Amino acid sequence: xxxxxxxxxxxxxxxxxxFQYITFRTALAALTAMIVTFVAAPHIIKRLKxxxxxxxxxxxxxxxxxxxxxxxxxxxxxxxxxxTVSMLMWGDLxxxxxxxxxxxxxxxxxxxxxxxxxxxxxxxPKGLKAGHKFGAQLLVAIAVVMLLHLHTTGQYATVLxxxxxxxWLFDVGIFYIPFAIFVIVSFSNAVNLTDGLDGLAVxxxxxxxxxxxxxxxxxGHAVFAxxxxxxxxxGVGELTVFCGxxxxxxxxxxxxxxxxxxxxxxxxxxxxLGGAIGALAxxxxxxxxxxxxxxxxxxEAASVILQVLSFKFTGKxxxxxxPLHHHFELKGWPESKVLVRFWIIGIILALIxxxxxxxR
Length: 360
Known about the structure:
Shape: globular
Oligomer: single chain
Radius of gyration: 20 Å
Number of helices: 14
Helix content: 55-70%
Strand content: under 5%
Distance between the termini: 38 Å
């Protein structure tokens, strides 16, 4: 809203012409999200602690995690608040892609908020029933994908892009809808599974968001898209502003979530942010590239699936504990070592993902 107000005055004050530029508003969105987080976080953390909204620890988890008992959770609500305020100020609210991104973030975040509340209220690590939680995620993802599908009926609406191949465009027709739903739900759950160490998930989200910002900006720029041989998608470039808000919110939240955490993100943050990343992947047609950038999330989710299947069919466990970060904890790695090494791998995967832009 503010950017339209300021830009409308550029006739009288030419300097305000900068508000038409996505890059300028992206920087403003990141800074605004940071400021909102730093202003709101101390107050919200105090209120969460006073209301008894604290982390519940699994009995079968690593023993050192019991030291985290009493730490406030639901801190992801701070991230969602920061992004929302920032987008209301600097985003183009006439752009359908912004609404799809916000619907994914807030819709899946609301499910996480209910799950976190039930855990804290019951003083139990069990919140929503798995079936109810997954069903709610599916409903939100379906609504988001249908909203996108109804407003993007261009020639690339059902196209899947595959890097590394000479013929890299595949029109999968109606099957793209369930695929897009799968991407959003999968990213949402993968980030949720990764959120088990102080700062791990939110740091990795910041890394993949940086990659997503580059991808959506290039996809929305006709010259760059043509040069790199990627799809030019008019209007998608506005999502760069959304990515800026996400990056600012996650980096500033890390100030409070770094080990030892003053507050945990909770499902409200992990489900919401994961869903937003999935939506960014679908809207920019970079589902596979962002899966590469988010390889740690993929590995964390895969470790859980493999562990369950192995125990069900063989009675044996592949890992000491799943998700994967707990396996390394039980092997004796300090939490800080697991965190930093996973971040390093995340940065390497992000660079590999960006490198695919030249492999067409």
